[in-house]
């Protein structure tokens, strides 16, 4: 059973109503709130009633719109935390059930995001600095506090804690970004060619995902000791976080298989197995196109698994070539046709993924598509 009482003041101020609970702990039922200011909830953890009333006077003199809740022990403060999070805590370091850094540690363990202002006595002023070093945002010395100092301390503690949390989030975000960049850089392709390889390789990789180094597109160029150049280009048919790792897994598998002497259709079967084992869902597949360029033969071998064709350019002409194709990887195909085509010395090949020809022409009216790629320069077409 509780008793209600009104705390009287001689100064002209708004009235605060308090309730005494069975264990004599003081909790306000109503606090003045001004429309112009956001209401702040402050939890005062103080075992001395006179000091608690002094703090209430200081806060009422300093600012309106502050709801003060008094907890006379750490146990009661933890009950308050269980029901609502205060905007700031005023903490006395000498409580019946918690003292010194133990009191501070119990609050931070309960909620590491809440700002804390420590209350110290005249004889342990130096202890306030120790508390700040241990995690408190500020400290006040009882008997030397003015209303404006209390107000500034509360606002400063709240803003300082907010800045600390933002800095922690920023550091974590930057760390994840650095880790992702290192990972993606390690997974990105770097052509593996011998000295004087006999071919020129120019690569352009531009992920559509903002701030990314990798996407679901993948490629690789490897030259084996017999000077044969093996080329792979492909695309994972999935939008999401799993596309880049799966594309990297296929590229790495292609390089390992090639260096191990596994080529042609046998290599495609192994890539099919890798994709099925690494994909995150049964419906995910990947397109791929491989080239095998011999140093002493103008004819090259190509295998196409659901991937777009390629551009043959030279002598002022550009031709879109579509070799025979088999199903994309992941569709449990049994075989893929192998096709040979001639590549004269004065001509070159451009391998692309569908993101290139799905772009728009310069007037922005229609997709560029395969026909647009085969006629650059005509009608002012360019990729946007």
UniProtKB/TrEMBL annotation:
Q: Which GO terms describe its biological process?
A: phosphorelay signal transduction system
Keywords carried by this UniProt record: Hydrolase, Phosphoprotein
At which residues is 4-aspartylphosphate found? Answer: 92
Which residue numbers delimit the Response regulatory domain? 41-157
A Pfam family of this chain: SpoIIE
Span list, region Disordered:
361-384
In terms of SMART domains, this protein maps to:
REC
Q: Name one GO molecular function term.
A: phosphatase activity
Q: Does the keyword Transferase apply?
A: no
PROSITE patterns in alphabetical order: RESPONSE_REGULATORY (PS50110)
Q: Which PANTHER family does the record cross-reference, listed alphabetically?
A: STAGE II SPORULATION PROTEIN E (PTHR43156:SF2), STAGE II SPORULATION PROTEIN E-RELATED (PTHR43156)
Give the protein name, as stated in the record.
Response regulator
Native source species: Mycobacterium intracellulare 1956
The opening ranks of the lineage are: Bacteria, Bacillati, Actinomycetota, Actinomycetes, Mycobacteriales
